[in-house]
């Protein structure tokens, strides 16, 4: 089909309109970060999301066995809105920007290691009920995006391995205090059956969207190491904080997580 100059202009207008409609469908007609009018994440919120440097975080108090963990920044109002929209409102077009921030956390954890080392990212599993209600596993989607981003320029691309599975139904974490969360998560994960095979050759990095008390990451590390899978550490998009300032590690608070 040949389109003349006038037709080309009209076609581009239609394509832009469809792009706008698609963005509104997945993200709404306002920025999910600041509610500024317009489809998608606005430029100002994109800049804010990219500003923090990933750094190591540690819960206070810290559970025994908590893995070395890097967060892409503090769990501020912007990140809270974006994670909530991605999880609860199926704003799937946010997978890219959130997955890229997760990739930066993984990169910080791996700084100084051989690019050829086999590394696989293991997402904290969502419950089957949450996956059914949301339409997909949002943490797995973020992990896949991070793997694609991190594979660029590496001698050996990273791999996503959903090795963990829930062993039972968990109580809603947001309604629990620190001790109750730890009791709720004790023994909550197990490694999927490997069909008689040995543990995968390489080392794991546990990934999640958020760290609060550290109970989920600690339990995930326990499950993996018990199955003979070495764990390098963990990486998350954000950490809930008491203080997060240049030159100091973030101190993880006991604010409620979205799960």
TrEMBL record:
CDD domains to which the protein is assigned, alphabetical: PRTases_typeI
InterPro entries given in the database record: ComF/GntX_DNA_util-trans, PRTase-like, PRTase_dom
Domain of life (superkingdom): Bacteria
Record field: transmembrane: none
Record-linked Gene3D superfamilies: 3.40.50.2020
Family the entry assigns: Belongs to the ComF/GntX family.
Name of the protein in its database record: ComF family protein
Organism, scientific name: Microlunatus elymi
């Amino acid at each position: 089909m040949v389109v003349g100059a006038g037709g080309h202009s009209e076609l581009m207008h239609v394509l832009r309109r469809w792009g706008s409609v698609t963005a509104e469908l997945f993200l709404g007609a306002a920025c999910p970060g600041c509610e500024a009018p317009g489809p998608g994440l606005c430029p100002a919120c994109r800049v804010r999301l990219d500003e923090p440097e990933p750094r190591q975080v540690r819960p206070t108090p810290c559970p025994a066995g908590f893995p070395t963990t890097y967060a892409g920044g503090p769990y501020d109002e912007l990140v809270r809105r974006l994670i909530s929209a991605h999880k609860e409102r199926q704003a799937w077009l946010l997978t890219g920007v959130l997955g890229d921030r997760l990739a930066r956390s993984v990169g910080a954890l791996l700084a100084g290691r051989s690019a050829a080392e086999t590394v696989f990212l293991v997402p904290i599993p969502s419950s089957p009920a949450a996956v059914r209600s949301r339409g997909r596993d949002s943490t797995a989607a973020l992990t896949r995006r991070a793997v694609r981003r991190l594979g660029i320029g590496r001698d050996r691309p990273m791999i996503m391995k959903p090795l963990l599975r829930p062993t039972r139904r968990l109580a809603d974490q947001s309604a629990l205090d620190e001790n109750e969360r730890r009791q709720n998560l004790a023994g909550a994960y197990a490694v999927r059956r490997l069909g008689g095979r040995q543990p995968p050759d390489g080392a794991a990095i546990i990934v999640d969207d958020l760290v609060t008390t550290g109970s989920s990451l600690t339990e995930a590390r326990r499950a993996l190491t018990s199955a003979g899978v070495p764990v390098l550490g963990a990486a998350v998009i954000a950490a809930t904080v008491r203080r997060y300032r240049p030159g100091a590690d973030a101190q993880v608070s006991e604010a409620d997580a979205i799960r």
